[in-house]
Amino acid sequence: MNLYAFASFARKTSSDRCRYLSFFERVTNIKTALCHCAFMLLPKLAVALSIAVVSANPGTNPLQSSDLHFSAEDVDVKDAVPISDEIWSLLKEDIDVRDQLQRQNAPLKDPKNWFSAAVVHLHKANEYDLVVQGEGPMMGANVTEFWVFAETKRGPKLVLKAPAHDLLLRNHVSNGYRIIEASAVTALRVSTLTYTFDGNHYVLIQK
Description:
Blueprint: H1 3-56, E1 68-71, H2 85-91, H3 95-103, E2 115-120, E3 129-134, E4 144-152, E5 155-164, E6 166-174, E7 177-186, E8 189-197, E9 202-206
Antiparallel strand pairs: 1-6, 2-3, 3-4, 4-5, 6-7, 7-8, 8-9
């Protein structure tokens, strides 16, 4: 091979190598992006699949139309009502709410906007109980805080606080009160905690 032919061969080989490396980099970047997307979506897919499996399998407590469902994915609860002064006086005594209030450097406009509330009936249809869902700074990754208040003669009473992705108030009752389930996604696994009313508060009975 003469010198001209060798130089031409070397240039061609170098060009091919550059094209190969460029292609390899593009493939690597695409794979990295896909892996990142999969990592971000897997928790949500796990929740969606778990709900689909529960709904499709009648032996695993399927959702009923009379069940009340609250989710961290929702911007606001359905049929939201204002946070009353009575409820706010209880919320601001919560240790997590106090911590978040202390972390705020800028002047607060209205910390009540960190919450949305919906009227529910835990026991009787003429009693106006409340589910409060944390929003904004009260939310975490794939989880938020839920507070359940029961109406009493002395005013609203906190009967359950639960961090969860989903809160489900079953139409089934125990001791005359709705059964409550709190679900969360941890390490691609959906865990559900079941609570029943013991006459004073909701207590955990099943993991």
